[in-house]
Specification:
By secondary structure, the chain is an alpha/beta fold. Helices cover 40% and strands 25% of the residues. It contains eight helices and nine strands. The strands form three sheets. A five-stranded mixed β-sheet has the order 5-6-7-9-8, sandwiched between helices. Helix 2 links the parallel strand 3 and strand 4. The two termini are 35 Å apart. The mean pLDDT is 87.
């Protein structure tokens, strides 16, 4: 169960790490009134958990819930629901860090022997971006936060920028799909040396890495597109190559 911020999510995973069910509902992130978030998450969980309880509750041995790294007006809803379920049905319960959940999601639907330690993991979403090092299972340390400077002072994760990139180029994106859509565009494009993208730089500021000159996005994208009438996929591929090339160097 995950109600970290603006998504209500319920997943069911079997003992071999295979996904049986993965359902989610998105909340309107423009409206951050706490009582509305509480009410919407509660209604969403009721809708998502009811069929799981009806069909699978006898087979469930463990309930996991995100209980770290979320918003005060979202996270407690999932935590309370998980505690009530565990108490009502006599199930074991564990809390999960939302971000460490990101890391271990790489193990879902894959074999454990595909991974060799130590591992460096780059986590990115709209709300956060961090670099972690895994010495071994359970030995995880965050070494850098990855942020970009924008006008709002919130949603510092690169996923927010990728969503804006798609939106600016009139590529239809639904909530939380900006990173996926951007990646798919980049995979289809050719890498070119756009002058505008060369201005992107990275500053190492102790515990964080700041990606500079991604904003304002219209200056970054419009000028390069007008200059040689570039395809959207080429823009995505070239921008991706520049950002991740700099990150890999750092």
């Amino acid at each position: 169960i995950d109600t970290t911020f603006h998504t209500t999510a319920v997943a069911l995973i079997d003992s071999c790490g295979k996904i049986i069910l993965d359902e989610r509902r998105h909340l309107d992130i423009e409206n951050e009134e706490a009582d509305k978030f509480f009410n919407l998450h509660s209604k969403n969980l009721h809708h998502l958990l009811r069929p799981v309880i009806k069909k699978f509750i006898d087979q469930i041995s463990l309930i996991a819930v995100s209980n770290k790294g979320g918003a005060f007006h979202s996270l407690p809803v999932g935590v309370n629901a998980a505690n009530i379920l565990a108490a009502a049905y006599g199930k074991k319960l564990i809390g999960i860090s939302h971000e460490i959940g990101h890391i271990y999601s790489n193990w879902i639907d894959r074999e454990k022997d595909e991974f060799q330690f130590p591992i460096i993991s780059l986590n990115m979403s709209a709300a956060h971006g961090n670099i972690w090092v895994l010495a071994e299972t359970g030995d995880i340390r965050k070494i850098k936060e990855v942020v970009w400077r924008n006008a709002w002072g919130k949603f510092p994760g690169l996923g927010a920028f990728f969503g804006l990139f798609c939106d600016h180029l009139k590529v239809r994106v639904t909530r939380k799909e900006g990173g996926t859509v951007f990646s798919n565009l980049a995979l289809k494009g050719r890498i070119k040396k756009f002058q505008e993208f060369q201005r992107i730089e990275i500053d190492d500021a102790g515990d964080s890495v700041l990606i500079k000159n991604l904003y304002p996005i219209d200056d970054l994208i419009d000028n390069s597109r007008k200059r040689i009438d570039a395809e959207i996929c080429d823009l995505a591929a070239s921008l991706s190559d520049r950002i991740f090339g700099l990150l890999a160097e750092k």
